[in-house]
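Section 5.1 Outputs to date
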Amino acid sequence: MSERGKFIVIEGGEGSGKSTCIEELKKENIGNSIFTREPGGTEVGEEIRAILMDKSNHITTLAELFLFCAVRAEHCAKVIRPALKNGVNVICDRFSPSTFAYQIIGAQREGYKTIFDELNYIATNNLKPDLIIYLDVDPAIGLERRKNAGEITRFDVKDIMFHQRVRSGFLKLAGQNGNWITVDASRDEDVVQKDVVCAVRNFLYEGRV
């Protein structure tokens, strides 16, 4: 039986540079790895992603919570768990920390925390990332970057206070978990990318967080 693969998640708010860091990781020789994303990762997940991201859709926070967990259930069952079982490393753009940061803290729905914990446990079958790399950036900087990037989603158009709360949600998790690495994403893009690549390499080849 092959050794279980490692599950690495890249997290961050809007405009933090997650996508460019992941593109840089794809260019690197980092072993037997696959790349995926949430929401998405499967055919059904990508269809739900289109609904969640379309700024013309008005979706309640509770419905968002259910949809994200539905995507995650499909994603874990069909992509993440099978890959890990076969010894393949999985590098994922967002996972359950984003749902906590956006739908619980950002949306000011702390009362949904118990529902989220139960849904997420069922959706993932208690699967947790081995390493989470959080790209931290001031929302004002991140949103300005997003404005210049082109495509705008439902989350990009939310007010600055929402995004500040999202950031606080991520930082709260980062402070509570030893498998998080926080990277200052306000710096030059190439510097941030080098830090992320280095962190992934250190973890995969040396077991260092």
